[in-house]
Amino acid sequence: MNIVLLGAPGAGKGTQAAKLVEEYGLCHISTGDILRAAVANQTELGQKAKSYMDEGELVPDELIIDLMRERIQQPDTVKGVILDGFPRTTTQAVALDTMLSHLGRPLDAALLVDVEPDVIVKRLTSRRMCRDCGHIGSVSDGQNCPECGGEMYQRDDDNEATVRNRLEVYETSTAPLIDYYKGSDKLVPVDGDRTPDEVFADVEKSLSL
Ligand code: AP5
User: Fold this and answer.
1) What is the pTM of this model?
2) Residue 156 DSSP SS3
3) What's the 107 CA to ligand 1 centre distance in angstroms?
4) What is the pLDDT at residue 108?
5) Which of 53, 58, 152, 202 yields a CA-CA distance of 20 to 30 A from 46?
C-alpha cells in the first residue's frame, strides 16, 4: 500500500505514521526527518535547506524532488510506503505521480489528518522529540524519552512565530493538494482532533486495513 499523509504542521502525521509502521511494517519516508538529519550532518543538502526550515518556509521543489526520486527507488519501499511531508506543492504531487507511474506502483490513498489551527499552535509549541529514537512526545514527558531514556529536545521550528508562518505556508502551498487528490478520488479525510488512538482507529477503518 502506498499512502501520502496530508495535513497541516502538527496535525499528527508523524504520530499516525509511527502507528502504521508499528502495526503494518510499511516503510515511512518523512522529508522533514531526512532534511533535519542532513542539517545535523551539515551535508550539502542540509546547508541549502537550513535557512528555509528555520523560517518555516518550504525547501525548493527541485531539491525535494531530486531527494525523493532517489529515496523512493530504494529496496525497502517495494512493499509500500507512507510518504509523510511529501508532496507539499502541486509541482511535487505531479512529480510523485510520474515517479510512481515509472515504478508501476499506484498511489492508494492521500490520507488527510484534519485539525484546526488553534489546536496546532498549542501542540507544536509543546512538542518535544527524542534525539536518540525519534519518539514524538510533549513537554510533559520531561527531559528523558519515555521510550528509550534519550534526551528530549524542542525542534528549532517549533517556536510560535515559525509555527504561525508554517501554517500560512501550508494554507497557500499545500492545502491546494486536498482538491488535487479529491479530483483523482484518492482523498481520505480523518478528524485529527481526537486522541492519537481514536484517530488511528479511524485511519485503519478508512483505509480498510
Ligand atoms: P516536517 O518535519 O514535515 O514538519 P510538518 O509538516 O510541519 O509536520 P510536523 O512534523 O511538525 O507535524 P506532524 O503532523 O508530523 O505532527 P506530529 O505527529 O509530530 O517539515 C519541517 C520543514 O521541512 C518544513 O517546514 C519545510 O521547511 C521542510 N520540508 C519538509 N518536507 C518538505 C517538502 N516536501 N517540500 C519542501 N519543504 C519541505 O504531532 C505534533 C504534536 O502533537 C506532537 O507533540 C504529538 O505528540 C501531538 N499529537 C499528535 N497527534 C495528536 C492527537 N491526536 N492529539 C493530541 N496530540 C497529538
Assistant:
1) 0.95
2) coil
3) 21
4) 97
5) 152
